[in-house]
Amino acid sequence: MATTAMSGEAADTARIAIRLTINGAPREVEVTPWMTLLDLLRERLGLTGTKKGCDHGQCGACTVLLDGRRINACLALAVSKDGSEVTTIEGLSGANGALHPMQEAFIEHDAFQCGYCTPGQICSAVGLLGEGRARNRDEIREQMSGNLCRCGAYPNIVDAIEDVLHVKAEAAE
Ligand code: FES
Ligand code: FES
Asked: What element of type H or E holds 128?
């Protein structure tokens, strides 16, 4: 991490150069020390699929994958993630635009209403699959409890995740 030249003014003009791989593409950006990963993604890089709900780590709307693990982007300072690989909802589809199986399952099961929580729910669900800690509906509910849906689409969200989980389990047999 290289600190760029600071003006003689207060530290609020400070910018720090960081490198991230975002949705497979290397990016170099300069951020203030207090800029969150969420604000970097939305405000600076135009990746507005990741939503800002509470901005306090309580709703899960801002969930992204960081080196494959799900995190709340509103709680992460961008500078602290220098060198990391970030995947947002925009990066889940294939190179040819094909939807990720979790995105397809959400559509198939009507797992959203207003859709505001959906990117965070889908990123969280993809992270959950990678963790291998959910094997049934109760465990899916427990492991997804950090992602709130004000529309109450929970049963269909669990249906969608359960579907992908079963396909994954069958493929592993
Ligand atoms: S916006 Fe990050 S948890 Fe709510
Ligand atoms: S679908 Fe509206 S908040 Fe979840």
From this structure: helix 118-131
